[in-house]
Hints:
The complex is a heterodimer of chains A (615) and B (74). With 615 residues, chain A is α+β, with helices and mostly antiparallel strands. Among the domains of chain A are: 117-218, Alpha-Beta Plaits; 321-456 and 529-599, no CATH class. Helix content of chain A is 61%, strand content 9%. Chain A has 18 helices and ten strands. Chain A has helices spanning 19-29, 57-74, 91-132, 157-163, 189-198, 215-262, 282-296, 321-324, 327-333, 344-359, 362-378, 382-405, 426-456, 458-482, 493-512, 514-529, 532-557, 561-596; strands spanning 7-15, 33-34, 50-51, 145-152, 167-174, 177-185, 202-203, 268-269, 273-281, 301-306. In chain A, strands 1, 2, 3, 8, 9 and 10 form a six-stranded antiparallel beta sheet that branches. Chain A is extended, with a radius of gyration of 39 Å. With 74 residues, chain B is mostly helical. Chain B has one domain: F1FO ATP Synthase, CATH 1.20.20. Chain B has three helices and no strands. Chain B is rod-shaped. Chain B starts with a helix and ends with a helix. The relative contact order of chain B is 0.21.
Amino acid sequence: MIQPVKMSKIRVVGPKKVLKKATEIMHSEAVIHLEDFKPSKYNIDRYFFDIGNPFQEASEYSSLLIRLRSLIANLKIDKQKYTLTELPKDSEKVLAKTESDYGKLAAKLREIEEKKKEFERLEEPLMFVSSLKVDAKTLVPLENIVVYKGYCEQDFESKLKEITGKYELKKGKIGKRLAFVLFIDRQYSDKAKEILDWAKYREINIPEKIEYESIKDLENERNELDNREKKLLEQAKDLKEKKAQFIVSFEHYLRRENEKAEAPLKFGATSNTFIVQGFIPVEKYEGLQQKLVQSFGSKIHIEKFETQAEFAPPTKLENPSLIGSFEFFLDLYSLPSYKELDPTLLIFLTFPLFFGFMLGDIGYGLVTAVLFGAIRMTTKSKVMRGLMNAMLTASVATIGFGFVFGEFFGGSYFGLQPLIHREHDINLMLMIALVVGLIHVNLGLILGFVNAYRMHGISHAIFEKLSWVVIEVGGLLTLFKLYNYAYTTLPHQTYVGLGIVGVGLIMLLKGHGIYGLIEVPAFASNILSYGRLFALGLASVALAVVINEFATEFIHKGGFYIPAAIGILVAGHALNISIGIIGGFLQSLRLHYVEFFTKFYKGEGKRYNPFGGNQ
Amino acid sequence: MAAEVGLIALGAGIAIAGAGIGTGIAEQGIGAAAVGAIVEREELFAKALILTVIPETIIIFGLVVALLILGKAV
């Protein structure tokens, strides 16, 4: 629990004849985290070892996978939605049939799409021609006659008359716009153009041939197209419903097969042998070894050796399921590296407590529990379910602290007796928060001490981590004396305290360098930062009390005010709860990430991802 | 006496307000940059969160000071 799963490095060597079967076994056992084989590392002879070649079927699988994935994308199949099913024997044929079915549908749909675009292009000219009642064929310029056709903003006929009478004008309104066709003698065309420009003329392009008589024809045809499109889309949906499960299953199957077929790319190979390297959880080694020996006897050589941090083994966290839910918070940050401690258990212990301490209300705890429970039941995402498990424990803690603070939706109803009164015992609450901070940060330092010891040895651990504890002790002794608080009986306590701080600072300088000294004020603010534990709770309870007082006043007025009071209660507490959830979650997360993790956690571990484990 | 208590309360209020404004100013730039970074790479969420909330301690300093000031009123 406290540590990632122990790994050994494993090496499997054998003749190429058994490569395929060995790959098969390793894949189905799904315990080896493969390491890419780097030929350059094995410089026995540069040409001796090389990366293996994928099995022949890999290229076939890949091309099938591409076809399947394009179908998945085109049919918009959501892979999560479908369960896997057994594949028919002639899967490839089924795939080809599905593809051709879809291809036909898609081609028809494309055709309709194009037609529709064409219609869109024709619509305006057709409207123009039919409402002005002109023939599209006549709208071409002749030797002596120029044609202007389009829209303008003002009527210009009176101006036109001033130049000449040799014209013919047809005009009409289309919507709000003034449409016109003007035939005019070529010799006046320039002047006419000037007038048109004055009238803000905009030309329209009209194809010489329009196949449709009227807008109505076009609409009819378009409706028919719409109907056809609808039917085709329905057919596509049918196809999707019928084949989606098959497609998803086939894709899944091929993906796994392809993993096997391409695995030799991660192996090393000579012309007749192969070598597989990777990491395996120590406890799984025996099982795999037996399986391999059973199948190949002495033809295959398997060895394991102790891992060292330099090999950078992958990290596999192992926690009981409820505690494991809190691995989410590590995923969000960064997995611990192999040699580090796994802090999941500690987060499991402290996160709900912090959250509960901040929200601390029986009613709010119940509401959030119902909310998180509902999300947990409905969501399909595994990550979300884990998170909700974690949040449910936080709700339980909230209810627990609700009893301590004697609060039910902000008030002490049902004869609840608060052990601590959050609104009034402010100094006590602040003190509790800071003491919790001191404990939490020191817990971080202890873990940091262990980590530093395991990675760099004892002296490193003492100077780097224990120095902080020495400074703390000295600082507290001084502060106690100065404020005449708690423990003051040591002779010359102030000076002794300062002396101890000095020793701590020197140790820190040795362990961390100048950087460590800069961190000293930050360390103090880290502990003060836990004040938020109480501050958020104070804000939450104050808001709840205000809401309740408001509503009580309304209820006393009676009559029409009672529903209003209920509305205020519901909306107010809903708001307060949502602030409480967001605030409680983020602040509690922050205390872990910023104040706690910085004392010991490095992260940057690789996830253990066994070959064949991707179900 | 009442005026004194009022002044003390005002002082506490100013402590909170100043710290709050300071925190806000400090967080605005970090927050904007953090959101930008998360959009580009989602896995930066935790790091972005940490950087964004660092100035939040300032408001807690404000709160502590306000409480110390209020303590004088009793």
